[in-house]
Automatic annotation (TrEMBL):
Residues 6-148 form the Glycosyltransferase 2-like domain. Gene3D superfamilies: Spore Coat Polysaccharide Biosynthesis Protein SpsA, Chain A (3.90.550.10). GO terms for cellular component: membrane. The lineage of its organism: Bacteria, Candidatus Roizmaniibacteriota. Belongs to the glycosyltransferase 2 family. It comes from Candidatus Roizmanbacteria bacterium RIFCSPLOWO2_01_FULL_37_12. GO terms for biological process: glycolipid biosynthetic process; polysaccharide biosynthetic process. It is found in: Membrane. The keyword S-adenosyl-L-methionine does not apply. Keywords: Glycosyltransferase, Membrane, Transferase, Transmembrane, Transmembrane helix. The chain crosses the membrane at residues 241-263, 269-292, 338-360. PANTHER family: DOLICHOL-PHOSPHATE MANNOSYLTRANSFERASE SUBUNIT 1 (PTHR43398). This is Glycosyltransferase 2-like domain-containing protein.
Length: 368
């Protein structure tokens, strides 16, 4: 029988913890194909959470308690993962809140997706059938929906609707590989980091709908300000899409600078200055994208892999130039030439960037 470990991080959850554990216990008994263990990772709660768990432990032998210092949610999970891997040798690990926001009755739905071949199953509040609590205040709704939309767009991963919710089932091989990269994200941003890692490493990710319940006991531990800052910086530093846009801007400066130099300073022919500057920008874009934006899937260090991909890159870039030229001309013909630069910026953001990002991903920096 395969073993799954459910990690329940707790900080002052004495109002809910017994009920959460009971809920899991009842479901576990009904599941015949998995042996389910629970690891409560308690960060030195002051309200008697650990004592309640110790009491239940006497009766439930698949319940374990790990006591740690209070270092944040991410750190608590890393401690829990390491404990589970060393002591229990599981095949699968669950993340789950210990405040009754996550219904244990969903556990079989996660297991089913894993049995069907998923490596990472995430409970989503934002797909059909899922929901956030109706009685959440407006600011909380905006906060949750806003954070998820920002991350989705920032990473250009529109298919992943849920990035922050911590109700998940993840295969242990994936967690073992991820730990070195994610172990320093000590706060709630850890949830974003582990999903980003899984996506970049081609794990098979599936979402299932969940109805997130508002907590009744105790209060949320999230520090919204810190969370926003950490999430924002995480996306800026890790999104290949945002890096790609920055590389494009650098390319624009190079293109402009070099053509200015040739045409104005050296008084070269305009066509010559334009060719040299455009090609310099293309070369810089190619190298920066390879070693920075798409560094996690960069080309092999072989000339035979660089040359054809560089040629494809040139071809796609020529397409961008063509689209821009035609688009701006078309707009000018329809609306007059006064605002040509506005049309240019709109076309770059709405057409050229998505077009080239998608094609580079498809033909140059392919998913391995
Ligand atoms: N051990 C430990 N240490 N547990 C913690 C800590 C900590 O420092 N901080 C929070 N927890 C536990 C809580 O006790 C709870 O069981 C769970 O982590 C979630 O924390 P909440 O305080 O209930 O936060 P939330 O409801 O706002 O969390 C939401 O956002 C998180 C981050 O994206 C949920 O969607 C979570 O599932 C999600 O991880
Ligand atoms: Mn909660």
């Amino acid at each position: 029988m395969r073993r799954a470990v459910i990690i329940l991080p707790t900080y002052n959850e004495s109002g809910a913890i017994e009920q959460v554990i009971h809920g899991i216990e009842i479901i576990s008994r009904a599941i015949k194909t998995w042996e389910i263990h629970i690891v409560v990772v308690d960060s030195n709660s002051q309200d008697g959470t650990a004592e309640k768990v110790l009491k239940l432990k006497k009766r439930i032998h698949r319940l374990h308690l790990l006591s740690t210092e209070k270092e944040g949610l991410g750190k608590a999970y890393i401690h829990g993962f390491n404990f589970a891997i060393e002591k229990l040798n599981p095949y699968l690990i669950f993340e789950m809140d210990a405040d009754l926001s996550h219904d244990p009755k969903e556990i079989p739905n996660f297991l089913k997706k894993i049995e069907e071949g998923a490596d990472f199953v995430i409970g989503s509040r934002y797909i059909k059938g899922g929901s956030i609590p109706k009685d959440w205040g407006l600011h909380r709704k905006i906060f949750s929906i806003g954070a998820n939309s920002f991350i989705r767009l920032g990473f250009m991963k529109l298919r992943n609707t849920e990035w922050t919710n911590g109700y998940r089932a993840i295969k242990v091989w994936l967690i073992k590989n991820a730990i070195p990269s994610i172990k320093n994200y000590s706060g709630y941003v850890f949830q974003v980091a582990i999903l980003d890692y899984a996506l970049k490493n081609k794990a098979h990710i599936q979402e299932i709908p969940i109805n997130f319940q508002d907590r009744i006991h105790g209060k949320s531990k999230i520090n919204s300000f810190q969370y926003i800052i950490q999430t924002f910086t995480y996306v800026l530093l890790h999104s290949s899409f945002i890096k790609f846009v920055i590389v494009g801007l650098i390319g624009f400066v190079i293109d402009f600078g070099i053509s200015y130099l040739f045409i104005e300073k050296y008084r070269s022919a305009v066509w010559l200055g334009t060719i040299i500057s455009t090609e310099s920008a293309i070369i810089s874009n190619f190298l920066l994208n390879n070693f920075w934006s798409f560094s996690y899937k960069k080309l092999d260090h072989k000339l035979s892999s660089y040359i054809p991909n560089f040629l494809k890159f040139n071809l796609i870039s020529s397409g961008s130039i063509l689209i821009q030229t035609l688009g701006v001309q078309l707009a000018v013909n329809s609306f007059g030439r006064n605002l040509w630069y506005v049309y240019k910026v709109i076309i770059i953001f709405l057409v050229v960037i998505p077009y080239s990002y998608i094609l580079y991903n498809k033909f140059v920096w392919k998913e391995k």
